[in-house]
TrEMBL record:
Keyword Calcium: no
Pfam families linked: His_kinase (PF06580)
Transmembrane segments annotated in the record for this chain: 12-33, 45-65, 77-100, 112-131
Name listed for the protein in its UniProt record: Signal transduction histidine kinase internal region domain-containing protein
GO cellular component: membrane
Gene3D superfamilies per UniProt: Histidine kinase-like ATPase, C-terminal domain
Lineage of producing organism: Bacteria, Pseudomonadati, Bacteroidota, Cytophagia, Cytophagales
Coiled-coil blocks: 132-159
Source taxon at top rank: Bacteria
Organism: Spirosoma endbachense
Domain Signal transduction histidine kinase internal region: 152-230
GO molecular function per UniProt: phosphorelay sensor kinase activity
Record's keyword terms, sorted: Coiled coil, Membrane, Transmembrane, Transmembrane helix
Amino acid sequence: MKTVQQLISGNKLTLHLIFSLSVLAGLWVGWYLMHLQGYRFENNWSTSIDCLFFLLCIYTGRWLFGRWYLRQELVRFIGYTLLSTLGLLILKWLFVRYVFNHPYAELGELGVAIMPFFLIGLIMGMLLKLIRATVQKELQDVQIKAEQKQSEFNLLQAQLSPHFLFNVLNNLYGISIDEHERIPALLLKLSNLLRYSVYSAKKPFVPLVDELDYIQNYIDFEQIRISDRLVLQTNMEPVSGPTIKIAPLVLIVFVENAFKHAKNTLVPQIHLSISLKIADNFICFAVSNSYQSEKQDDRLLDEGSGVGLANTLRRLELLYGNDYALKQEAEDGVYTVELRVKIK
């Protein structure tokens, strides 16, 4: 499997060069064998150009299939395939008329003669793209499953650290003495928190509304722990229904880090701001918190909170590819994280 992956993701220019030379060599061998059988071609130059046109058809079919068909834009795929086929035919016709000096060559007559040859090239390119996309998808699925297993393991061990649970239980004990009526609701939140942490990690994507409920439960407990020292501002766009999905436990990592690093400051009050909105088929999430640069290191390397940022970034790369963007910056005592992920 590693060898196949290296072939796919390795030096693309070298692979394309090897592939092109192999195709041309195969065509020239076939042409030579046909010549030995008595088949006569117009001339070597014309035949060589036909071989290059065949290679161009393969790459055209490959591009059309990847650009439109794999993105399930069938109408555009069919339309651009017809236009490309016509364009290749006209280009060949121009070659015949003005390069090979056949000024009376008819486009229709040439199309009947050369079109099967072009179609074979186009279909071959599409099939090659399909095979490549299938292999890539299989490899990606294997990687995602491996990462998912590792995430489950990390989550079970570290997502809700013993330290966090210890403090929560202590807070619950204190509340049970003076405000015992609040305990059932808090126990229900804790139960939901644990259930989501354990079971949601088994799915590649979960409804955004469930992820936000989980974050809210986490925030509620942090508010109990930090009490009056916390100044929290939230601006979360209401999300309803299961249609908007996101990778599980992606957002919570940044919320955890915001609380953790804000609490480590020496200021009497810590400020946190959390916002979320849906725009242009993307989930736009932002977290900012009080920050002291002399006390805190680069958070990209921090593995001490939950699944860890490195783990989360890896999952984002596997699950979203180029469909996500992460920005982190510290300015004027405020650390800000902005994450955009495409809706699944």
